[in-house]
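Protocol check, entry for the methods section draft. Step 1: assemble the input record (protein sequence plus ligand SMILES). Step 2: submit for complex structure prediction. Step 3: store the structure tokens unaltered in the notebook. Ligand used here: NAP. Step 1 record:
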Amino acid sequence: MKLGFIGCGNMATAMMKGIIGNGIASPEEIIGSDVSEAGLLKAKDTLGIQVTGDNREVASAAEILVLSVKPQFYETVIDGIKDVVTKEQVIVTIAPGKTLQWVEERFGRPIRLVRTMPNTPALVGEGITAACRNENVDDDTLSEVLRILRGFGKCEVVPEHLMDVVVSVSGSSPAYVFMFIEAMADAAVADGMPRAQAYEFAAQAVYGSAKMVLETGKHPAELKDMVCSPAGTTIEAVRVLEEKGMRSAVFEAMKACTAKARGL
Ligand SMILES: NC(=O)c1ccc[n+]([C@@H]2O[C@H](COP(=O)([O-])OP(=O)(O)OC[C@H]3O[C@@H](n4cnc5c(N)ncnc54)[C@H](OP(=O)(O)O)[C@@H]3O)[C@@H](O)[C@H]2O)c1
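Step 3, stored output:
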């Protein structure tokens, strides 16, 4: 199997690291291109993949081709490769807002296409990716693409109309979680804890809490209630978070994120 990545930035690197680390593909089976010479050298040195400055070389060589550039560069990239892509190859997109129909129209002829939305925890094998396909992708081909996407975390097939929601709930959400960890650590530092220790305690608390939601199957509210003793310390913190509008801030931020994805 030959895997190609056009654009070797943050997301592609996270995906390739998981794919190689989990033995889904070897570095020799991956080829990447990028406009940035420094990015290419980094990908070659850290991942051992084959690299080139020519997107068309990647598009010709890959059986599964990931378009891992920013959404605003999709049109130029597709224009540059569309005549070398065959209908046997599978194109995988990872850009917010770029619908199956939009990408098909840019290629201007039938292609096999899987639209996905990964996230950067892929870098540590804990990503979650949503995927949907066009009508030219059969079940076996989709299974093969999902096997690759599961090389760096979980992957679920969702209807295309949910892809913009996925952007806000998992594609972008690591940023909000990092802000939350940073804020908790800052507060712990303000109360006297050394900074490195504060990051460790805050991050582990988030990690363990997420694991409890995933593994116990309990409603998050029930788990929250379990921490809140009557007249205790936690309910005081919860009271202040409600007063400061934490839920509403998250709600509004995610609605803005989804709306932005829809407009890209
Ligand atoms: N980062 C995330 O958390 C995340 C999560 C989910 C999905 N995504 C999606 O993943 C895609 C890539 O994001 P990213 O964060 O990895 O971006 P990134 O770090 O900027 O990587 C993109 C790379 O592509 C290069 N590039 C630009 N134009 C090119 C062209 N015409 N041909 C070949 N390479 C080109 C860029 O070079 P220059 O820097 O020189 O422009 C850069 O090295 C985006 O569509 C993004 O929305 C990202």
